[in-house]
Amino acid sequence: MTETLPLTGERTAPGIWHENYWFARHEAAYRWITANWLSSETGRVLDAGCGEGYGADLLRQAGAGQVFGLDYESTTLRHVAKAYPQTNLVQGNLVQTGFADDAFGLLVSLQTIEHLWEQPRFIAECARIAEPGAIVVLTTPNRLTFPSGNWYHTKELTAAEFTELVEADLEIVETLGLWHGEKLAAWEQQHGSCVDAQLATDHTRWSAELVQLVTETSHEDFVIRAGDLDDSLDLVVVARARLR
Known about the structure:
The protein is α/β, with parallel strands linked by helices. It has helices spanning 20-36, 54-61, 74-83, 119-129, 159-167, 182-191, 194-200, 208-216; strands at 44-48, 66-71, 88-91, 104-110, 130-141, 171-180, 222-225, 234-240.
């Protein structure tokens, strides 16, 4: 499935064993959304910054009536069209999408905003294209815990910064965090940070214990909940488009 999509080290994709931890961490957020914010009455759904496309397909499989995937890169979209042909694809700029006002009953954008130069403009665009009262779910790495130096990111955010950014144009419903679950936490108590271990060296030189952990990690090994967000791995903001 991933053979036609060049790997950058940033975009996650299923089926790559040494990137499985990051894939599962992303997948956990999509599955949390399908369990909590998707219903048969949701209407049209947009995955803004759909990337490889597995998230949009998870939303479709969970019962979304019509799912749209928006991305800027043509190579990515050609891959999505082949891998997930039931996703409606649109190439466009996230800060100026071209969609009509009030176009979507649910809008998600996961691990995307940190890549954008015009973050306030993106939030304003989300507010414009979401139906009044529609839910908007956004996630981003927590700047306080995410390893520094990722040159794909234009600006990483703290929980306070993320909330302030979103509430300028949307009504905040809840702000949550993503953490390691019991299995990952127990491994780290014995071996130290699994993220640091993965980044410390090429995967061909990983220890047997780390290889086993990464290959066996699933979306169920992460939890999304309230708590001290400064300690979370990723930040999750659930917001609602204001009535107009």
